[in-house]
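A further point concerns the way the authors explain their paired sequence and structure data. Since the whole study asks how a given chain folds, the encoding of that fold should be made plain. A single example would do more here than another paragraph of explanation. An entry of this sort, consisting of the sequence and the corresponding C-alpha coordinates, reads as follows:

_____
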Amino acid sequence: MSILKIDISDTKLHRDAAIKLIEFAKDQRVFLFDAPMGLGKTTFIKSICSYLGVIDTMSSPTYSIVNEYHTESKLKVFHFDLYRLKSVEELFELGFDEYLSSGNYLFIEWPKLAESFLESYLRIIIKIENNNRYLCAEHISIP
Protein backbone atom coordinates (compact mmCIF):
# COMPACT_ATOMS: atom_id res chain seq x y z
CA MET A 1 0.00 0.00 0.00
CA SER A 2 1.45 3.34 -0.99
CA ILE A 3 0.92 6.54 0.92
CA LEU A 4 1.41 10.02 -0.46
CA LYS A 5 2.70 12.69 1.93
CA ILE A 6 2.87 16.31 0.77
CA ASP A 7 3.87 19.50 2.56
CA ILE A 8 0.99 22.02 2.29
CA SER A 9 2.25 24.43 4.94
CA ASP A 10 2.08 27.37 2.56
CA THR A 11 -0.81 27.98 0.16
CA LYS A 12 1.83 28.56 -2.54
CA LEU A 13 2.45 24.80 -2.37
CA HIS A 14 -1.20 23.89 -2.89
CA ARG A 15 -1.31 23.86 -6.71
CA ASP A 16 1.59 21.41 -7.00
CA ALA A 17 0.14 19.37 -4.14
CA ALA A 18 -3.25 19.24 -5.90
CA ILE A 19 -1.59 17.99 -9.09
CA LYS A 20 0.28 15.28 -7.18
CA LEU A 21 -2.88 14.24 -5.35
CA ILE A 22 -4.97 13.93 -8.53
CA GLU A 23 -2.18 11.91 -10.16
CA PHE A 24 -1.91 9.70 -7.07
CA ALA A 25 -5.69 9.17 -7.05
CA LYS A 26 -5.62 7.74 -10.61
CA ASP A 27 -9.25 6.81 -11.38
CA GLN A 28 -10.54 7.33 -7.83
CA ARG A 29 -13.13 10.10 -7.67
CA VAL A 30 -14.18 9.92 -3.99
CA PHE A 31 -11.92 11.78 -1.55
CA LEU A 32 -12.54 11.72 2.21
CA PHE A 33 -10.88 14.55 4.12
CA ASP A 34 -10.12 14.00 7.78
CA ALA A 35 -8.63 16.76 9.91
CA PRO A 36 -9.54 18.81 12.95
CA MET A 37 -11.48 22.02 12.44
CA GLY A 38 -9.35 24.83 11.06
CA LEU A 39 -6.55 22.76 9.51
CA GLY A 40 -7.37 23.75 5.94
CA LYS A 41 -9.64 21.09 4.44
CA THR A 42 -11.83 23.58 2.58
CA THR A 43 -8.86 25.70 1.52
CA PHE A 44 -7.10 22.70 0.03
CA ILE A 45 -10.28 21.45 -1.67
CA LYS A 46 -10.53 24.87 -3.35
CA SER A 47 -7.00 24.34 -4.67
CA ILE A 48 -7.94 20.94 -6.11
CA CYS A 49 -11.06 22.43 -7.67
CA SER A 50 -9.01 25.20 -9.22
CA TYR A 51 -6.62 22.65 -10.72
CA LEU A 52 -9.60 20.67 -12.09
CA GLY A 53 -10.82 23.81 -13.87
CA VAL A 54 -13.83 24.69 -11.72
CA ILE A 55 -15.47 27.81 -13.15
CA ASP A 56 -17.95 28.47 -10.32
CA THR A 57 -17.31 30.47 -7.17
CA MET A 58 -16.26 28.04 -4.47
CA SER A 59 -17.35 28.26 -0.85
CA SER A 60 -17.67 26.06 2.18
CA PRO A 61 -20.76 23.83 2.13
CA THR A 62 -21.09 23.97 5.92
CA TYR A 63 -24.73 25.07 5.80
CA SER A 64 -25.78 23.77 2.40
CA ILE A 65 -24.20 20.32 3.09
CA VAL A 66 -23.20 19.97 -0.59
CA ASN A 67 -22.00 22.42 -3.23
CA GLU A 68 -21.98 21.56 -6.91
CA TYR A 69 -19.29 23.05 -9.11
CA HIS A 70 -18.92 22.94 -12.89
CA THR A 71 -15.62 22.72 -14.73
CA GLU A 72 -14.35 23.93 -18.07
CA SER A 73 -14.47 20.30 -19.27
CA LYS A 74 -18.16 19.91 -18.28
CA LEU A 75 -17.17 17.67 -15.36
CA LYS A 76 -18.96 18.29 -12.07
CA VAL A 77 -17.38 18.39 -8.65
CA PHE A 78 -19.42 17.85 -5.50
CA HIS A 79 -18.05 19.25 -2.25
CA PHE A 80 -19.69 17.90 0.91
CA ASP A 81 -19.43 19.02 4.51
CA LEU A 82 -21.16 16.40 6.66
CA TYR A 83 -20.34 18.02 10.00
CA ARG A 84 -23.97 18.91 10.78
CA LEU A 85 -25.51 15.58 9.77
CA LYS A 86 -26.50 13.32 12.62
CA SER A 87 -27.36 10.03 10.89
CA VAL A 88 -26.80 7.87 7.83
CA GLU A 89 -30.51 8.33 7.09
CA GLU A 90 -29.94 12.06 6.55
CA LEU A 91 -27.18 11.28 4.09
CA PHE A 92 -29.42 8.79 2.29
CA GLU A 93 -32.18 11.42 2.09
CA LEU A 94 -29.70 13.78 0.37
CA GLY A 95 -29.43 11.25 -2.42
CA PHE A 96 -25.82 10.50 -1.57
CA ASP A 97 -25.89 7.20 -3.46
CA GLU A 98 -26.79 9.10 -6.64
CA TYR A 99 -23.81 11.40 -6.19
CA LEU A 100 -21.60 8.32 -5.78
CA SER A 101 -22.84 6.72 -8.97
CA SER A 102 -22.44 9.96 -10.99
CA GLY A 103 -18.78 9.35 -11.84
CA ASN A 104 -17.91 12.90 -10.78
CA TYR A 105 -15.44 13.98 -8.12
CA LEU A 106 -16.76 13.95 -4.55
CA PHE A 107 -14.73 15.80 -1.92
CA ILE A 108 -16.13 15.01 1.52
CA GLU A 109 -15.27 16.81 4.74
CA TRP A 110 -16.24 15.18 8.06
CA PRO A 111 -16.80 11.88 6.19
CA LYS A 112 -17.57 9.38 8.98
CA LEU A 113 -21.24 8.92 7.99
CA ALA A 114 -20.33 8.41 4.32
CA GLU A 115 -17.95 5.51 4.88
CA SER A 116 -20.72 2.89 5.06
CA PHE A 117 -21.76 3.85 1.49
CA LEU A 118 -18.30 3.31 0.02
CA GLU A 119 -16.42 0.39 -1.47
CA SER A 120 -13.30 2.41 -2.23
CA TYR A 121 -12.05 5.94 -1.71
CA LEU A 122 -9.01 8.07 -1.17
CA ARG A 123 -8.51 8.84 2.53
CA ILE A 124 -6.84 12.19 3.07
CA ILE A 125 -5.56 13.24 6.46
CA ILE A 126 -4.24 16.73 7.11
CA LYS A 127 -2.02 17.00 10.15
CA ILE A 128 0.62 19.15 11.80
CA GLU A 129 4.14 17.79 12.29
CA ASN A 130 7.05 19.91 13.49
CA ASN A 131 5.08 23.11 12.82
CA ASN A 132 4.43 22.08 9.20
CA ARG A 133 1.10 21.07 7.68
CA TYR A 134 1.05 17.82 5.73
CA LEU A 135 -1.51 16.11 3.57
CA CYS A 136 -1.31 12.31 3.66
CA ALA A 137 -3.33 10.22 1.23
CA GLU A 138 -3.94 6.50 0.79
CA HIS A 139 -6.25 4.35 -1.30
CA ILE A 140 -8.82 2.40 0.71
CA SER A 141 -10.76 -0.55 -0.68
CA ILE A 142 -13.38 -2.44 1.29
CA PRO A 143 -13.47 -6.14 0.31
User: Anything to note?
Assistant: The chain has one domain: 28-134.
